Amino acid sequence: MSVMSQLNSPVLYLICGGIILFVALVCVVFLVRAYRAGVAIGMDRTKLKRTITASATFTVLPSVGILLGVIALSGSLGTPWPWLRLSVIGALHYETSVADAAAQAVGIGHLAGAAMTSRAFTTIALLMSVCIMWGMVLAAVFTKKYTKTLRAGSEKDGKPSGIAAYGDLLMSAVFIGLISAYLGSYLGDFISHDGRFTFTGSWLPLAVAAVSALVMGVFLWLKEKKHQEWVDNFSLAGSMLAGMAAAVLFGLL
Questions:
Q1: What pLDDT is recorded for position 21?
Q2: In the chain, where are the structural domains located?
Q3: Is this model's pTM higher than 0.70 or not?
Q4: Higher pLDDT residue, 9 or 171?
């Protein structure tokens, strides 16, 4: 039996599907308890139902981005594992980048199903799991204290201050640093010699990143300048679809 056949075996589907089902049931339990708590404190039942319906509706298209991530990873890691990762705790940009970095570290180059081995998959899956588990660990240990600090310094003279004021800024800075590291691995292929620049790598990732950033910029412009708040729910999926379409088009060229 080939490695890809093992990664798509019924046993793995059963294991991963069981975990996903358990998490889905937990979500349903929290939904019911939240609804009952809202009713108990006097919230309008009609507004609660509208909120649930609206939330469910606006999660459909953003989840397309997650589905695309599962499809992209399934060709090299099988379907059950990416399905589990992106359904429970994984983040799309994290899973794809860490899996690719781990694949290069074990010597199979970029993710490719034909080159996948059982040892390589074990290493990739372990790295994907270990690197992301610290969010849960730190949340379990420090969330209570962090919440108290956040509430204590959340407002000053009616305006956000302290941790509350810098939370969004910090996350934006971290994300920009992450993207810069990704792009830097490709920009590093520009070599200067005798005052002349030579590009030794592939320009396709840079072109796709530029198209995706441009599309995301359009979504942000519509949200901030045209006050079209609803587009925020579709920005990730839209920019991903545009990037994938650009990759196919540029690949043909």
A1: 95
A2: 3-132, 142-252
A3: no
A4: 9
